[in-house]
Amino acid sequence: MRHWSLPLLALALLLALAPGADAQPKDTLTVALISHAPTLDPHMHFERVGILVNINMFDSLLHKNARLEYEPSLATSWKALNDTTWEFKLRKGVKFHNGDTLTAEDVKFSIERVTEPGKEKKKSPQYGNVRAIKDVRIVDADTIHLVTDKPFPLLLERLVFFPIVPKKHLEKVGDDAFGTTAAVGTGPWKFVEWKRDQYIRLEAFDGHWRGKPAFKHLVIRAIPEVATQIAEIKTGGVDLIRNVSADIAPELKAHAQTYVSSAPILRVHYVELDMRSAPFDKKLVRQAANLAIDKQAIIQRLMGGLGRQVATVVQPPAFGHDPEVQPFPFDPKKAKELLAQAGYPSGVDITLHSAFVEFRPVFEALTQMLTEVGIRTNARMWDPGPAWNKFLQAEGKATNGAYGSWGNYSVFDADAVLHPLFHTEPGGWIGKHYTRVEGLDKLIDEGRSTLNQAARKRTYSQIQKLIREEAPAIYLFTQYDTLAISKRVEYAARGDEWLWLFDAKPKR
Predict the structure, then answer these.
(1) Who contacts 110 (Cβ-Cβ below 8 Å, separation ≥6)?
(2) What is the CATH number assigned to the segment(s) 264-479?
(3) pTM for the whole thing?
(4) What is the pLDDT of residue 17?
(5) CB neighbours of 303 closer than 8 A, spacing ≥ 6?
(6) Is pLDDT at 394 greater than 70 in this prediction?
(7) Fold adopted by 28-210
(8) Ranges of each domain in the chain
(9) C-alpha–C-alpha distance, residues 264 and 171, integer Å
(10) How many CB atoms lie within 10 A of CB 175?
(11) How many angstroms separate the Cα of 6 from the Cα of each of 9, 12, 14, 17?
(12) Of the residues 35, 64, 289, 483, which has the maximum number of CB atoms within 10 A of its CB?
């Protein structure tokens, strides 16, 4: 038996208990997100935290590589037959995680459960993304045709994130079980366990058509506290965190066990204003709110310069962006004048809501700036999760507005932000509750219903001029995707904000 001196024993215990980069098994990759989506069913939510899980469990017809170029996925080729019909050739021999072989019926079923919501107990919140698809025709075992009601220029972009689910399995287990305990896809990792609000555990799918991912186990932890995420990445409890703030990035860059990777992305920050009731039913108040915010100060001081001010919610990298439309300047004096003209010479009291915990300091700065011009703001900060989802998404009562961001589903087109934020049809996201701009729905529909790119640009220019004037939101800035990553992992931030972890490799 070996005898330990007390100092050596103390040192051994300290080394054994100290967390570090090797605290996890080498075959496990652990990612921290602020929350989990309410379901694993990729068609029944629209949350980024859920998309980042879904893309690693499910495949779509198309894929984008790190250079944001289209690549074959479940479809090996595609072509337009005419203005409203596209043909897709399906990859042969693809297996679902339960052993079933992918068929054209699975593709048809997946699309129709979103485009024909009457067949489902629950209506997909992604309906607006693909409502243009009116028919899915099976030509033969390896060929499908997608037929749209009008020319639909966004079809390929939308199919990059449109996961295909197994028809027979889903009909057998039911929607609820599929979204909680029986999720099955064709992606690099298969579902093992979900402990709600704690972790999702996935395991490499040996039968994946791309080959096995480099890590056998993928764990997605829900950690809503930013400070906890930072502590975990430093000590090796997680391998990757998102939305690293400007004040902490230098520390994580210099840390012995972490590095930082950033890329400019589509994600645009805004405060959506409720136009249905006072005070934001008045254009002058909405304009005043835009003039009250010093966006450049926020970008430089709170975002570390990793952002770009926008004139509307349409991002500069998105098709249809009009650089001639100018952002609102920072003009608190003019903001006070407009507020008085609108009938609020003594100011007005409002409440704004947010669950954007990673950007709490930005939210606090926004509300302070609004208060200083007389739009006295009560800031209601929510924890991300079920209560917030129900409040905002189901009830649409976030009086008098909500601060958040939109990442376009990583679709580089103006429609991908205009439709969900400002269109009032049921397929809209916030717009159906908040936005009431005459003629805007019609213009958004026009923009997504022609293949004439010049005509689309003209339409989107008209829309941006209209919403700059009507100001249905406070327009802020786009951000970078800034990741902190364990030095035991090789990975880089992508311009589409995906965490495509099939590309993650152990560092040699």
Answers:
(1) 43, 162, 163, 164, 165, 167
(2) 3.10.105.10
(3) 0.84
(4) 37
(5) 246, 362, 477, 479
(6) no
(7) D-Maltodextrin-Binding Protein; domain 2 (3.40.190)
(8) 28-210, 264-479
(9) 41
(10) 17
(11) 5, 10, 12, 16
(12) 289
